[in-house]
Structure formats: structure tokens, C-alpha cells
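Q: Got a minute? One more chain.
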Amino acid sequence: MILSLNAVKFPFYSIMVLSSYFLLSNLFSITDILAISQKHTGHNNAFPHTKPILANGLINNTLKENSKVVILTFGDTEKSQFITAKPIIDQYGYKASFFITCTYVGQTHRLNWNDILALQQDGQDIESKGMTHADLNTLSLGALSFDIGGSKQCLQTHGVNSPNIFAAVQGDVGNNPVVIDTISKYYGYADNGFANLMFLHCNGYNSKQTNCRTYDNSGKLSSANRYSIREQSHNAWDARYLHNDQIIFQRFVQEVNSGIGVNNKIGMVDAIPIVAYHIIDNSKDPSSTDINLFAEEMKYLHDNGFKVIPMSDLGYNESTNSMYIKQ
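A: Always. Here it is, folded:
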């Protein structure tokens, strides 16, 4: 893993965050924390002041105006993504990737097909999270084909245009060649695994890996490839910090800024944080993110000049075996 510039600031933020948690948990709002942090960090990359993003800010991933790119994903077909999250991201014109589990559609507190098609009509990215939300590592070949390939057919039958990304439940099939091979028959990419960053050249996790080939020269499944795109689970923070929004907001800020130093160093966009959400409400469920926190996070991205793209904006260069951002 390539260390970001923000890593050197971690001790300071840890002290500040833990202090707020144990001593001042109810005294400051998220806005207060942001203002205090800006005052004390000056030119810290965690709170940059940038010019507005130009429409052509990225050309073949070469930096023009911006080294700050973020991908947002939503999983498990939750109704709150349509009624709560979408109006918030609409304020900023953000497009995200929504991963649909076909057998969930229409259930209580889940999206229905009208919701999903409305998301698509508004330019949101609709992709697959299987037919049944099953643990893929436990399925037979026939069941894998049904869950993976059947979900693509299900989405297309209901009007979804060309889903090309599959999200693996639990994100734990990156070392399972049978599952990866099945996914690759139907999709060009897979959201599968967890890390602070994903790297377009798949070279940020293993110093010996220089590209995104699915298999190396010896026929061994690569540890990172376009079927093992890694994301950061927001719900891991929600559960770990017991919905303490002040602490979680700081983790979000640290996360979305973590690729800046990498990208600036090499002069191109290569490291992209992907933040994954599920439920957006105030239920304090382990799979939920508080509404006001989500709104503050989206506002932070806007106010600090981040370019937010859906996962479908990723392309793959067969000649270089690397991913890139489509224009």
C-alpha cells in the first residue's frame, strides 16, 4: 500500500478525535470540528481549498485541475437510498453506483422496480449484487451461474441498461478462481474486497504486481484485478464507533483525502477511495448511516472540490491491463 500524505497527520487527528469522543462528545457539531481542524491544520491536504472542477479535469487520468476523485456505492437495495440519499446527492449532481439484489426488490424497506428505473433515468449507475444475496463461496457451479448470470438477466428484463459490474456479498471471493471466472463470463468488473483505496493499475497493494491482469504468467489468480475492486465500508465505521458522527466524519475526511498524495506524487489519478453505504436513516442500525452525517459528508465533497463518479466510469485497457477513467 502506498502511504498517503495524510498518514503523517494521523497522530494529531487521533488525539483530537479521541478527545472529542471521551471528553466532549456532545459539545461540538460536525461543523464545529471541521472549523477547528481548518484553523489548526492550515494547508493540510485534509481540508484543501481548490478551484472549481473543470468538465475536462481528467484526460487519460492525467492531472489537470484535480487529484481528488471519489466513488460512492450503495448496496442491498434499501428504500432509504431513494427517498433519503438521492435528494441529498442530487443537490450536488453526484452520480453513484447502486447494486441491486433481484430477489430483494419490492420487499418491505427495499427499492421497487419503479424506484430503480427512476434512479437510472436520472443518470445513476445501476449494477448487480446477485439474485439471492448468497455467500458465493458456498455455491455450486450451477448456483453460481444462477446468482451471478441470472441477476444480470433479471436486471435487463426489468429495464436496466447493460449492468457490467457485480458486487460480491461480503467481498471475500477475491482468492476464489471459480467465482472470479464465473463473474468474468457476465461482467467486466467486480466490487469485491475492502481497502482504503483502489488503484487503477492494481499496484498499490503488492509491490510485485504492476498491472491488473486477472491471472499472472504462472496462471495464479492475481491478488488485485478488475474483479477485486476494493472499497471502504462506511458501516464498518458506523458500527465500530457506535454512530458517533463526530468521529465517523473525521474518518470519512481522512478516507476521501487518502489518495491525494499518491496521485500528486505520480502526476496522474491512480488511487481512488470508494465509500460504500447501505441504509441512510437515523435508526442506529449497524448497517445504517445517520442522515445528517451523510448530508455533511456529501457537502464536504462538494465544498472541497472532489470529483464524484460512479463505478461505471471505469474503463479497462486490454493493451496495458490497467483501468482508467472514461471521458
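A: The radius of gyration is 19 Å.
Q: Perfect, thanks.
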